[in-house]
């Protein structure tokens, strides 16, 4: 059976919790991604910041993204999946927590991200439909 590492998008990059939101937006543009894992000073996952977070929690409130740190927007306990986890575990974790992007970690190092696009490329139409139904359920 396929693993998280088999379906992930490799080459994900951390952004430090101390970096500003404008830098996060620049890095998202450079990497062509909509989310970045946020790391603490020990390069441990402490959150995820999305392009939507920046817009809704900063720009829409007329705050200056050059003065707001990534740490200020990180909420809750970040979730991640081990690179060796099978796809069933990935789907369960993402569905049960209604997560659209999942960092993949191997030997305590970030090795990739799994997004809905990655799932679409690797799941059957039925599996993908079930995932979308569960994650979008109100």
Give descriptors for this structure.
4-stranded mixed sheet; alpha/beta; Putative signal transduction protein with CBS domains; CBS-domain; CBS domain; 138 residues
Structure description:
- This protein is of the alpha/beta class and 138 residues long.
- The protein has one domain (4-136): Roll (CBS-domain).
- The chain is built from six helices and seven strands.
- The strands form two sheets. A four-stranded mixed β-sheet has the order 1-7-6-5. Strands 2-3-4 form a three-stranded mixed β-sheet.
- It is globular, with a radius of gyration of 15 Å.
- The termini are far apart.
- The model has no long low-confidence stretch (mean pLDDT 91).
Could you give me the name of the CATH homologous superfamily? CBS-domain
CATH-scheme architecture: Roll
Q: What is the overall shape? A: globular
CATH topology: CBS-domain
Instruction: Estimate the helix proportion, in percent.
Output: 25-40%
Distance between the amino and carboxyl termini: 31 Å
Determine the structural class based on helices, strands and strand pairing.
alpha/beta
